Amino acid sequence: MGQVIAMTKCPFHGDTDPSLAIYENGYYCFGCKKSGKLEQWMTDLAHQKPVTQSALHTRNVVKNVEDYSYLYSDEAKDFFGQRKIRLDIAKEFRVKYNKNTLLSPLYNLQGHNSGRQIRYLKRKPKYRLIPVIRNKEKQYPTYSRCLPDAEFDKGGFIVESVYDAMRLWQSTSIPSIAILGTNMRTELLMKLAVISKQYDTQWCVLFDPDAHVIARLIGTKMRTYGLKTLEILPEFKPYEYSDDDLLSLVEEVF
User: Fold this and answer.
1) Number of neighbouring beta carbons within 10 Å of residue 152
2) Burial annotation 158-180 (CB, 10 A radius, 16+ → b, else e)
3) Which of 95, 98, 116, 137 is geometrically suited to a Cys-Cys bond with 68, CB 3.0 to 4.6 A?
4) Each residue's pLDDT tens digit, 98-109
5) CA 14 to CA 51: how far, in whole Å?
6) Phi and psi of 114, rounded to 5°?
7) List of residues 6+ apart from 79 with CB closer than 8 A
8) pLDDT exceeds 70 at position 8
């Protein structure tokens, strides 16, 4: 396919280390062996079932939800500290702690609970999705509207994780939609198009540096749905910036 122009985590098999090579005219994963043209990539992502590390390691229920609380251990405080997330922001996002795990509620665009996500502090895989049961069927979340009461009347971020959303809310007061990885499905795109008809909403795709190529592809896909979209391609991860630096990074967008 020619010269490799970027390496990134593969969204098709729950990659933990960058194993997907991006070429000028296609892509190839050295892990799951998936390959194809870049133009087909977004179609593949939109129509597949989630196969992130979160989706590969699920359980029916969290049996000890009542044991989770806002009493964070030193390990949890270190986790938030390393990501420059204040504890009051973690509590605003209703993230609770129990036995080296963090439990985050997830929401759909209507603000209703769509499941939960566990974040392990001392084991891999790091994430696990917990479904909701509706009509006797398990439904797994594929994204989360972070802070369900926050409106997108001024704009919003599209980010990879709930913790990225916390970091950006803390520094910019702009809400986010976390797609729980790098796979943005068509269902969400259609719903965002409805929101954008209600508000003159500016969407900003902000992923980690190793996912710049995917961020561009998602931005292109969003624009095909009529969404005002801009990709910010940072040099560092969101938590590696100070609050002031993050605000400066995005202030021209919003």
Assistant:
1) 21
2) bbbbbbbbbbbbbbbebbbbbbb
3) 98
4) 999 999 999 999
5) 6
6) -120, 10
7) 102, 121
8) yes
